[in-house]
Structure formats: C-alpha cells, structure tokens
Amino acid sequence: MTPEQIRTLHLLCDTVVPSLDRPDDTDGFWARRASDVGTDHAVLAMITAMPAEQQAGLGSLLDALAANGFHDAPEAVLAAVRQASPEAAAGIGALTSLTLLVTYGITDESGHNPFWTRFGYPGPVATEPPADDRKITPLPVTGDLDLEADVVVIGSGAGGGLIAGRLAAGGADVIVLEAGRYRTESDFDQHEIAAYQGSYWRGGPTPTVDGNITLMAGAGLGGGTVINWTNCIRTRDDVRRQWAEHGLTDVATPEFDRHLDAVWRELSVNDRCSEFNRIHEAMRRGSETLGWSFKTVNRNWDEKRHDAAIAGHLGFGDVSGAKQSSLKVYLEPAVLDHNARVVDGCQVEKILVAGGRAAGVTGKVGEYRVNVRAPIVVLAAGALESPGVLLRSGIGGPAVGQYLRLHPCTVTMGDYGTDMRGWWGAPQAALIDEFATIENGHGFLMESIQYAPALGASAVPFTTPAEHKQTMADFRNTGSFIGLIRDRGHGRISLDPAGNSVASYELTDELDVRNTQRALEAEIRLHHAAGAGRIQVLAQGLPAWQAGDNLDAYIAQAQQLHLGAGGATIFSAHQMGSCRMGTDPATSVANPHGELHDTPGVWIGDASAFPTPSGTNPMISIMALASRTATFIGYA
C-alpha cells in the first residue's frame, strides 16, 4: 500500500473508534482511539497478507475516500461514500467490521486489551496446560512425499477423526491429511483473534460470496471439535425417519442407536459441567415467565479437569484439556496405539482415480507435494471443502456442492443493566426447544453464544462512531440469544477461478423466512420476559427497543428486515449436506452407505453427507453417521 493509503487507513480506524470527551471517563474508554491500541498497524498487516486482488480493491477504496475529502471531514465523507454504491458500502462495511474486531480483540504484551476494563472482562485465565498435551507427531514434510496406505482420510474433524480411529483400531493402515495445523493446550492462549487465525476456517468469520451469511468453521487437527461449544444433542427421531426416506433405512431403527450410544459414551457426555452464567439464568427466567421449554445442555467434557472459568473460553481452544474432541478421543489412540500417520498443513488438491475406482490423493504442504496411494479414500474435509475436492477431481456427479444447509442464526442482544459476566462458564449450557418442530418438522432452537468482545463489536450494527462506542460501553450488561433454524432451502458450493471452494446462500425459502421471523420474535420476547431494558437485533437499519417502547411494533419491524447482506446479520456454525447421501445419483453424491455413486472406494465421512439438516448442533449426528459409515467401509 502507498503511504497515502496507509495514512487514510489510520484515519479510518480512528474515525470508526474515535476519541470522545465524556465526563467521569475513569478508565479512558471514551478517550481511547483505535490507533492507541495498534489497530491501524494490525489491520495493515492483515491487508498486506491478503491476495493481491483484494489488496488492490481495498487500496482503491482508500484512494476514493481521500479523493472525496476524507481527511478534512472523515465522518461525513465516510457516510457519503457508503451511500454512493452497494460496492462501496460493502467495502467500507468490511473495513469497519475488521477495525472493530481488531480494536476490541487485540492485546498487548501482557495479554490484555485496555477496552476490556470497561467490560469487566478479566481476559484469559492463568493456568498451566497439561504436561502430556502433545501426543501426536505429524510426519515432517521437508520435500516431496510419497506414501502408501490402506485408507487415506481427508480431514480430521467430527467425522474424519472418528473414522480414522475406527479403521485404525480395526487393523487398517491409515493416513490422515489435515489442511489445518496440529494445535493443543500449550498452543492456546485464550485470545480471540489468535484463535480465529490459528483454529478457524480461513482465519475466522468469513462471509459467503454473496455476503448473506457469516460462516464459522473449525480448521486444524480435530477440526471443529477442537473449538466448538460442546453442545451434544442426539439425532432427532423425525430427522432419522426423514433420512430413512432417502435410503438410510437403518438410521430409523435401533441399529443407529448403537452408534449414537457408542459416541455418547466415548465422548464422556454429561450434564454435570453445565453451570449457568447470568445469561443462562436470564434465559431460564424468561422461559419460565413465557411457559416455554428449557433444558440443560449435555457436553463432551471431562469432569476431572473441569473449571467453569476456563470453559468460558473453550471456543478459543480449551487449555484445560477437559474437552473430549475427536483429536483426543479418536486420533490420539489411532496414532499412539494403531500406528496411524498424520500430515498436517496439507491442502488436498484432488482424489486420484484409476480404472474408475479410488486410487489415492494428491496435495501440497507449502511448496512440497504429498501423494498418497490408497484404495480407500474417506473425504471428510467439511461441508465447505469436501465439495471442492470432488469438483477439482471431476467426480461425484451433478449434486456435488448442492443442498448446502447452514442452520442460519439471527442474533438478538439484551441489556439487563447489570454485569452479566458472560465470559464465565460454558457458552452453551442451556437451550429452548419449544419451537424446534413448529411447522412440518422445521423450526428453530434458542441458544446462547460464546463471549467474544471482538466478534461482538464487529457484529453490533454500526450507525455512528459515538453510538457504537456507547453500545460497547454497556457491553458488560448484555447477553445474546440466537435463533437457529432448521433450513428447508439450501445454498451451494462452487469453485472460483483459482479452484478454491466458495459458498453462496440466499435465505429466501418461504418456510425458512417464516421461521426466521418467528425466531426473531421469540428472541425479543425472551429478552423482554427476562427483564432486559434494551433489546437490539443485530441488523442494519433497526434501532434498539427501549423500555417503554411498543414491543409488538418493534417485533413487527424486526420481522420486515431483509435476511442477509444489508439487513439482519446472520451467522452459521453448522454446515451440512453439500455431498449428501441418497439413492438417486441426480440428487445425491453418495449412496446410503456413504460411498460415491460414480467412484467406488471414495466415501463421504462428514456433515456434508447429511441428506437433510439435523436441526440440532450436529456433532453427535456427524459422529454417529461416521461410525455407521466406518462399519460399511469394512475394517471397523
């Protein structure tokens, strides 16, 4: 970037988070600017690490700001450029969100952010990681690597990790290729931005190509199970019956219970480590007032290592060693007891085929090529990446990448006028399933979310710098609820010109729109019943409800929001269905056992295999289906 662009970026950061004069600013919150914590330097470093095309686009945007008098009247020009075109608004919005994310998440040498003092957030919990945390030694890649195995597993999350463990225990020679890196307790520092960069897909919150949904997915050995929120829910009976209609007939019988029970036992799932923080207490209080269901969440957590304060950071990597991830439960035994091999940092390019059958995999670790010859390939790179592997390989049929389900989530924040201490305790210790099957087997769950001041700051609607800073000044008093819908509509995964997978998704299905509107109403009513004095839907163009305002009128406004870019902020932490199983090769990628219709020896082993969405946090369903698939492969 040019010196002028850097100067404009610096001013942009301090315009988004400015220094303001307020009385009784005892901790310096109001006076502190973004650049005072080094936001401008951190954002510049992030931009320079982007692909050249993105750098050029942001540089042009900064040039346009400067050309329009930004240095003389920053707020006015910023607002004018945002109004100039959708492209300009999107670019400014992205830079604004990045600035807020960094400002409220960046830390100094002591691991602290000075803005946190106003939040009452103590930051990371001082603790020593377990001495035995690094049990796996990935194969070193110091040159091109040629390997042979009985089975090569692409991906190591909930599905891939379990299948690797099952097949290795059954006597197969297994190699696991993982795009992310091997990280354990000694690598985690409980810092939000570092966690996004090291353990999340594409470095953290990533929008779909159309900007409608912000995707959150794990990346690393153990996949999403290393950074998810440990909410364990068995596959619903009605969903099992629906999957049986797609040809998975045994899923609707007690045979599938065997897999569910085994996973439940192996993960040490229990409800004894699910203490309620003040946000969960508000959820319970509101649900009791409204007469709604309320349940304590079961979690895959080791009671002997449990510490509620540390559990509050589990989405940033669990430093206690209590989380029973696929890394701990399946991959470590596969390597230590059954000689499975692991290559991390491996970007799989394609599946090799010979004589119409699976023959192996080729990929790269940095500049070096990794080739694995194997007659069985298990594709478990996640619903965002597994279709990309098949598309690059030219196999899988016409349904590859179709039927992507996301469990889209709206978010609503309530201000309770007291410190909610949302950083304490597991982020999801309770849920409301009152509306789970409100219409034709579809509906929504109501849950809470991880305390994440950086992500929260970037998601809070930005109107003016002063208004946003006021919202953050009150952040300690807030708690958020989400409405997670079981979507009937779907998106798709395709490839960009460089061959990378891209997701697109429009929330336009009539039933999904109806259920999202119902979820927004339920979130607002829950906050109101729990005693919130201010309620804010995370959405552009909708002011907050204040005590004394007409609640029904506010709900009606919320239900008119556009559901996507420029309207309601929508997140997805559950991606499913993009390589689904079924009997029809025209509408499914794999047969009901999980093997590709058109390429024997290639098996789908992750959430992309779901015929339809689970309607619940999917980890247990992924693992049970993977356990089932492992038996069909033959070694388990």
TrEMBL record:
First-listed, main subcellular location of the protein, grouped into a coarse class: membrane
Enzyme class: oxidoreductase
Positions of the Glucose-methanol-choline oxidoreductase N-terminal domain: 382-396
UniProt keyword annotations, A-Z: FAD, Flavoprotein, Membrane, Oxidoreductase, Transmembrane, Transmembrane helix
Assigned GO CC terms: membrane
EC nos: 1.1.3.20
GO molecular-function term, one example from the UniProt record: flavin adenine dinucleotide binding
Record localization: Membrane
Catalytically driven reaction(s): a long-chain primary fatty alcohol + O2 = a long-chain fatty aldehyde + H2O2
InterPro entries (alphabetical): FAD/NAD-bd_sf, GMC_OxRdtase_N, GMC_OxRtase_C, Long_Oxdase
Function: Long-chain fatty alcohol oxidase involved in the omega-oxidation pathway of lipid degradation.
PANTHER family per UniProt: LONG-CHAIN-ALCOHOL OXIDASE (PTHR46056:SF12)
Family statement drawn from the similarity comment of this UniProt entry: Belongs to the GMC oxidoreductase family.
Name of the featured protein: long-chain-alcohol oxidase
